Amino acid sequence: MDELTLDFVAETREMLEHVGNALLDWESNPTSVRDFDDIFRFVHTVKGSCGFLDLPRIGKLAHAAEEVLGELRDDKRSADAGLVGGLLRIIDRIVILTEALESGAVVPDEASDANLLIALEKGVPAPASTLPAPTSRRNVRIDIDLLDAMMTQVSDLVLVRNELTRTLRATLGVDATASALDALSARISELQGSVARARMQPVDRLFAALPRLVRDTAAELGKSVRLTVEGSDVELDREMVEQLRDPLIHIVRNAIDHGIESVGGRAAAGKPIEAELRVTAFQTGNQVVITISDDGRGVDIDKLRLRAVAAGVENAAEFSGDAVAELIFRPGMSTAETVTAISGRGVGMDVVRSNIEKLGGAVSLVNCPGVGLTIDIRVPLTLSIVTVLTVAAGEMILAVPRSVVQEVLSINADAVSIERLGSGRIATVRGEKLGTVSLAAALGIDETRQTHLLIVQPSGGRRYALIVDAVHDQEEVVVRQVAPQLAAAGAFSGQALPHSGMPLLIIDVLGIARLAGLNTEREEDRLVAVPIVPIPTMSVLSFIGLDGQLWGVPTALVERIEDVPKRAFTVRADDAFVMLDESLCRAVLHGPLPTTEEITVVRLNDGNSRVGFPVQQVADLVRIEERSVLSRAQNPIAMVGSEIIQLLDRDMIFGASKRRVNHAA
Asked: What is the pTM of this model?
């Protein structure tokens, strides 16, 4: 294929991705002049290019589409679903023929074009076209391999620059040679950034096919689905975009087929007939998170549990709800009743997870039966320029993405105090209490003299304090994919080669918190994402109750621990109340109040109401495994080491007050 035709294929491919969405937008809003102009401009450009490239078949299709659009512009015809469908089929055929120019694939017989043209002229549904599998798209405007070679060469150039600077800096004063060296160093840094960014592209290219995919899949299943896409301007490495295309398409098709109910089912459930499917992308540090959520039925836990038992999954009958939902990532698991062209073969989600993990990423889900399902895909940016802070953990030098660091404080600062709570630590910064993690301890490294506190805000989690042994410097680095063994540890999300020339691991602050057993669920996500029964483990605050027994409550419900005056309590018949922050809250008593002047109160909050729980003494922060729970009735009992702990559940804490209110009403 000559160079002119190659340019035509690349340019047409880019325009096709844009115009397909414009057609769908125009279908829902036929008065949109902007969408109409984009479509008209596309077919006019394709027709003109085919004229001098001698591509008569594509030119004939583009000419027919242009004629119809001209009649619409002159108000000789009106836009309807049949007409827009005919235009989409014409564009499908142009896609097939254009891809075949590059790949040499077999194309439909030319005689079949006549059926498409007749359907377009009459404005009736046209026969569907079978789209070819997307090509690898190794050629955009410059070969990807060449960009890779350039990136390697620039990285080597940076290392030579660093070594030259270290060698000459000690002998050079402030003279012309030193100034020239500084200028050369700056130009090399700019070149490094430019080459790295040349490999990046917006995820809009990944999302471009979704509107058409959602429209066609929903129509095939007789469902009504509204797609919302956000974050299309987030950039990813080009190869990463291509590798994510199939997993994303699979998840979206599954959401429409499995998750979203039929029209009748949504009406019976009291939901809007039109379902909502939302795809969002955002960058957090050196990672990109793609979230796919729907307002469908979620994962059918009972059905999946039966399938797991039938498949011989050990102890599947005893799994909690979220643990069962995770089984959709196991090979052969499907809740589909029948095998269709879309789903039901028991393959797919296991491959999705495997492919994403090969990229150094991770996939997780939050299942809300009857409400919907959210799937998060986290992938590294790979060749991306990211600003990091270099810190010390023991003898290791590590990097923390600057974008997640809100503040850097000295441990000895007046505004900072750190207290031990059992085996954990709580940092108080200007009156705010934060969960605290030692970076060295989380990584299993011997701590040295710890000097600084980083206040970090992980994406999708609550902020916490990260203790490091030292803070060294801030610099821009090119992020590369971390080795699979390190990625599996959950603590690292990338690696870089900084100016020092020594490899540098970039930590995942959310992964570090999870390794340390710190609850980082956001306040607004508590009721959805933090289960009361451990799945498979849960973080629990243990304490000695007023009855002298060892009790525990999920830390997700703990708002604060404080000492309040005894006079703040009011006990009346079977009701007890406590004044907290000048507001009267219900108190849960498990025995008589102590005679001391001040009483320790664990303040609990489920997102809707606040309850005070007086205790004798706070004991520890512990993690409880699911297998240690001996009873799942109200106030389950679990084993912590050799001790028995009674677990408070949400209904016991908050349900009593609601029942009293309802009874009074």
From this structure: 0.47
